Fold this sequence. Notes:
The chain is α+β, with helices and mostly antiparallel strands. Helix content is about 50%, strand content about 20%. A 5-stranded antiparallel sheet has the order 5-4-3-7-6. It has a 3-stranded antiparallel sheet with strand order 8-9-10, with no helix packed on it. A two-stranded antiparallel sheet has the order 1-2. A hairpin with a 2-residue loop joins strand 1 and strand 2.
Amino acid sequence: xxxxxxxxxxxxxxxxxxxxxxxxxxxxxxxxxQGHDQDWWPTFFYVGAIYSIWALMTWPIVAATCAIERRVAxxxxxxxxxxxxxxxxxxxxxxxxxxxxxxxxxxxxxATRWQMADLMFVRNFDTNTMLYLALAGITIAWLRWPRKxxxxxxxxxxxxLVIRNRGAIRRIPxxxxxxxxxxxxxxxxxxxxxxxxIEEPLASLAxxxxxxxxxxxxxxxxxxxxxxxxxxxxxxxDAHVRLVTGEELRLSRRFRDNxxxxxxxxxxxx
Length: 270
């Protein structure tokens, strides 16, 4: 994973450096068109200072958006959570800029860090709003983009799940799996041998599991059916699924039919 973190960091820095270059060039050419002289390097460094804060905040924003997408069930609740995150992002941006760059850009009109933060919020409100929406939108689109199964057909087996993990191939018997949870573009297999992180989305992984043994119960989880100890309705079509291991998972009404054989006997006759 260290290589992945380095690659992610390099990609983030490269992306915001490109944005800095484009916006600096735009401002420079606009000033030249209007007949004003504008020094290139001071402009470039100031714009770079603004976007360096965005570079620092990019991964936390992406991680928070992924958490909302994975853990919040209803679309309107996910939308509300993303909107609620925006004031936090805005405050973090102007706060960090004032904390880091006030000694460099302070002046008689910007005598304190608070004044700098206030000025930055007003000047960059529209730009920061668009950047936040773009980051959140790109993250959501990436999570929802359909992907094909990563494992070749030759690896398919009748009694085990064959996976790739950090370049190695691992065989996990179906009988050893309790449940599998989504983790962004990855999946976590929970079973007798512990928890294994798989470099494959849950939706793709589900297509490689036998339908008679495994069932999707939530957009973020699927279970081995014979590991279910109890299904407890909690209203509005949802339920709690308790496994023989003692773990409790959420059954969404969207996937209720997948456990119909277990739920139906418990329903009162009409």
